[in-house]
Amino acid sequence: MTRRPIIAGNWKMHLTVAEGLALASEIRNRCARFRGVDVVVAPGAASLYPICQRLADSPIGVAAQNCHHAAQGAYTGELSPVQLADVGCGYVIVGHSERRQLFGETDEGVGKKARALHDHGLTPIVCVGETLVERDAGRTLEVVLRQLDAALGSLRPEEIAASVVAYEPVWAIGTGRTATPAQAQEIHAALRTRLVALAGETVAQKVRIQYGGSVKPDNIRDLMSQPDIDGALVGGASLTADSFTRIVAFENEDA
Ligand code: 13P
Predict the structure, then answer these.
(1) Residues with catalytic function
(2) What is the distance in A from the centroid of ligand 1 to the CA of 229?
(3) Which of 33, 170, 181, 251 is a plausible cystine mate for 131, CB 3.0–4.6 Å?
(4) CA separation for the pair 176, 54 (Å, rounded)
(5) Any alpha helices (H) in 16-169, and if so which ranges?
(6) CB atoms near residue 179 (< 10 Å)
(7) Which domains does the chain have, with CATH numbers?
(8) pLDDT, tens only, 34-91
(9) Strand ranges for the chain from DSSP E
């Protein structure tokens, strides 16, 4: 089974609307020719609408970085899946470690969001990952499998198949310290084995599992050569069109 790679740029809390539009246009112009890979950008909330408009006639997808699980209601400061679909988003990142660590996101909350996103036709990009303390304590698998179970537990098999999982070891995020391809593959394989238990072999083989954490143009190819690494969730290196395009073009030597 060959899974279509998916490379997503998480812009986090960077870029003004004008800067984001310029970057989105450049990514569209330079990445649209790479037909064998899904390309997604995740701008900050204030830029979602103009960037969705800018990319509307292109193959580049747009993700929000978070959402609330309710369709609407008295939740000041939140954005619902309905609102995100309305502005043109196709994906939403849920359970990013920064949201778990800095904003109290729980496993249960991530599961509610994934459920709500599928209810409204959006694709969750579900992040899982261990901290350095957890890795050093030998708890990596326990942590990421618990996070995966909680995120996908309420989904039907076809919804699991359509979801994207991102393995992002917290110690590799923004540190320049990438997991080795072998380290990442070990966890990706364990995640896929758990997907088999949750939804069966056929579904598990369809789920795309991204790696995230200091992905750069010079390490993407080795990561992507691993059998269970199906893409990347890129932070810092997604903020310039040059480095992001080189990551998207990982299969094309001449890019
Ligand atoms: P960096 O690529 O900057 O390490 O960030 C990874 C990340 O958190 C993407 O969601």
Answers:
(1) 96, 168
(2) 16
(3) 170
(4) 32
(5) 17-31, 48-54, 81-87, 97-103, 107-119, 132-136, 140-152, 157-162
(6) 25
(7) 6-248 (3.20.20.70)
(8) 999 999 999 999 999 999 999 999 999 999 999 999 999 999 999 999 999 999 999 9
(9) 6-10, 38-42, 61-64, 91-94, 123-128, 164-167, 208-212, 231-234
Closest C-alpha to 31, from 173, 189, 206, 243: 243
The 3-state DSSP class for residue 6 equals: strand
Element (H, E) at 96: none
Please give the model's pTM, rounded to 2 decimal places: 0.97
Residue to mutate, 6, 7, 10, 99, ligand 1, most ligand atoms under 8 Å from C-beta: 10
Contact 212, 167 (CB under 8 A): yes
For 128-177, how does the pLDDT look when each residue is reduced to its tens digit (9 = 90+)? 999 999 999 999 999 999 999 999 999 999 999 999 999 999 999 989 88
